[in-house]
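Z., the sequence and structure:
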Amino acid sequence: MSTEEQWQAARLIPVSGINGTDEQERRGASALLAVFQVVKEFGRAITQKFGAPSGTLEAFIEVPFEFNNVKFRPDGLIRIKRGSRTWTALIEVKTGRDKLVESQVKSYLDVAREQGFDAVVTISNQLATMPVVVDKRSTKKVGLHHISWSQIHAEALVEQKNQSVKDPEQAWILKEFIRYLEYPKSGAIDFDDMGPCWVPVRDAAINSTLRASDATTHDVVDHFSQLVRYVGMSLSSQLGVEVQQVLNKKDRSDPVAFLQMMSVELATTGRMKGAVSVPNAASPVNILADLRAGRIACSVTVPAPSEGRPLTRVSWLLRQLKTAPNDLLICVQGPRSKDQGPTIRLDRAIPKPDALLPDPKYDVKSFTLTLTAPAGTKRGQGKSSFVGSVLDLTNRFYEAVVQNIKLWVPPAPKVISNTQVLAGTDEGPISSAPISNALVTSAEQTTDAPHAERLTANFVDTSAEPVS
C-alpha cells in the first residue's frame, strides 16, 4: 500500500525514462526550445547573445536537410521574425561528457549557408568560448556561436532571482525548466573536473619539469580558463547580474594563441591566472593559481582617493573592511608599477594603519586586497578538489570583501559666499577640510606571508574586457 510521501509530483518536463545520450539530447533540446517560445524574457536573454533580433520566436526540433546528396538532421532550429526581417539559426546539442565534433559543425555551417540562414548555435557542457575550431571561410556569411548548459542554467537563475518573468504561469514554467536542468539525468553538467591530465601536469609544475608544448599542458590551461568562466556563471546565479570572464581583445580573437601563452606561463612560473568582471564592482576579481606554492588567491585593486593625506587614504579603505577576514592581505601602490609598500594582514593593519606606508608622505594611488587559501589537489569537485577550492575562495572573497568596497567619489563643490571670497583675499587661500579622521597610527611596518609578493602581484591586463 503506497503512502502520499511516495507519490511523485507531475512535472511539466519529466525526467523519468531518460536512457542514453540520444534521449538526453532530444529531450534537452526540445525542453529548451519550447521554454524559449513560452518564456519570452528568457528566450530573449539567451538569443540576444547570438545577435538575434527581438521578435516572435518559433522553434523546431530535428529539422531534415540535404546538402551535397547527404542528409542532415540538426537537433533544432530557431526562427525569429520582426517585421519583414527573419533571423534563423540551426541548433546542435550535446549533453553529458559528449563533445562537439568539428566535422559535424562544419556541415551545419554549409547547410545554413546554402539555406540563407544567419547562424549555427552549439550547446554542450564545454565552457570554452568556442570549443571547435573551423575555417574562417565557413563563418564568413554564417555566424557560429556557442553556449554551455551551465550558462543557460545561470541565465535562468538570473531571470528567476530578478523576477524578470512577470507572468506567474511563465515563471512557473521557468522554475520547472531549472528543476529539469538540475536533475542529474538531464545531461546538463556544471563544471566539475579539471580533466584527466590534471594530476600529472600539477605534479610536473611542482617539480618544474612541465613543458609548454605538451598537449597535456594545453588541456589543463584550457580547463582552467573554463573554470574561470564557470566562476563567473556561479556568481551570476547568486547576484542576479551577468558576471563575465575578462579577456583582452587579442586573446578573444585568437583563443589558440591565448591558451599557448597560458601554457608558457604555467610551464615557466607554475601559475595560471584569470579574472571575472562584476557589474559596478570596484575592479575585476583576479584569480591566481600557484601550483608550485600549492596556493590560490583572489584579489582586487582599488583606486585610492585622489585627495587627503596618505594616512587618511589608508583609513578610508580600512573603514570598509570591518567584516573582512583577518588574513586579508593589503598592499599600497604608488605612482609607478614597481613602487609599492609592504604587504600587511588586515588584523595588523587596523591598529597600525601607517604600517602600510613606506613613509608618511608616500603617494598612495591604489590598494591591492588579496585573500589566499590552499589549492585543492583532486581533479573533480567536492572536498579537497581544485575546482571546489577555487569556487569556495572566490565566493568568500566576493561576499566578505568585494561587495563592501565603494569607490571614492570627490565631494560636490560648495558655493562660496562673498564674505568667504573677501576673507580669502585678506587672509590667503581658504583651505579645504580633510576627507576624514585618521585611525590610530604607529610607525611600525610589518610584512606578512612568505608568498605575499608572489600572490599579490597585479597579474591581469588592465586593458582586458569582459567576454560573454
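The first strand starts at residue 56 and ends at 61. The CA atoms of residues 247 and 464 lie 5 Å apart.

Let me know what you think.
H.
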